[in-house]
Amino acid sequence: MTLPIPSELLLAIFNFAVHTSCDPADQPDPQSLDSDMLMTMEQDPIASAPATSGPTDGRAGAPKVLRLWLQNSRSQPLDIVFRDTPNGSSGDTIVEMIKMAAEHSMRWKTFKVRLRRQKLSINEVMKVLHGIVTPLLQTLAFSFNTIELGDTQFDDLWMSLIANAPKLQELQMWSANYSKHFLAAIPFGRLTCITLIMVRFQDGDLVWNALRSCKVLRTLAISFGFGPGDSPWAFTQPPSSSAVVSIPSLRQLRLIGGSDLCLLLLGLHLPSLSSLTVHTNHTERYMRRLTTDVYMALEDFLTRSRCQLNSFKIRDERESGFEMRVSPILRHSALRDLVELRLGGNGSVEEL
Q1: Which Gene3D superfamilies match (predicted)?
Q2: Residue 60 clears pLDDT 70, i.e. is over it
């Protein structure tokens, strides 16, 4: 059912649009459109009721539009996403908008905050989100730079949001150090999708035990990044063969990183995996060692898992001998029923 849009809301959207730059260079990429001034109505397959996605980019005029949108979305479940745009407003404006959204937390189905440019006060955000109840929340993502120095109580805020989300199924986390206390608060047993971006793992046993708790997980995405610096692993060995983590429910695995991916690949057993995506920057100096050679670790992982892939995508930013290195994997029995194949090496991409 399409709801009528009040005239004052249309006027606010129009006023916002005519004062927004039309320079293509100022426009966000297509992946960021959900944070622009777009309002859509869609059918919620889970709740069998309309779900609403709203304007949450923080630019001038956005708070007024958001308030009108929240008021006129009635009792529908809400998908709310805060993401950077080229002309985003100050952190104070975004905190104001988060406060508006928090007043409707009972209707949240999705709540995502991912900001790189704007800095927010973690203390102010904690005040805004303190004590909110989110009985419908299924997807949670939370990451932003803070204006405070030192410890930021980020873990406390995360755990509070998770504890108040009894229906949480999808979790996205950025740049976090996962302590025992923090991991204990995450309901791994009911999560269907986990995305970890630019992560660092402090304790190997904690990581493997957390993954071992996943009973219905269908999608796992992990990014270690390509930049210089310390390894994302604070430990150097995968679990022993008898302690390999098996997740029979997992269907999709997406990985980004260099040789750091090896420890993860050597520690997993995914017999039901059907889609695998790897984006790496392998270099020759890491060749021929199972714990540092991504291609060797990948082949070992496929043999151990005995899965049948329908989709396989791999891109290597550095490997000059990409075709030679990927050939043994393409001949692996796990790829005999392949439907989708995408290869990219040293700047080129080929889709078959």
Answers
A1: Ribonuclease Inhibitor
A2: no
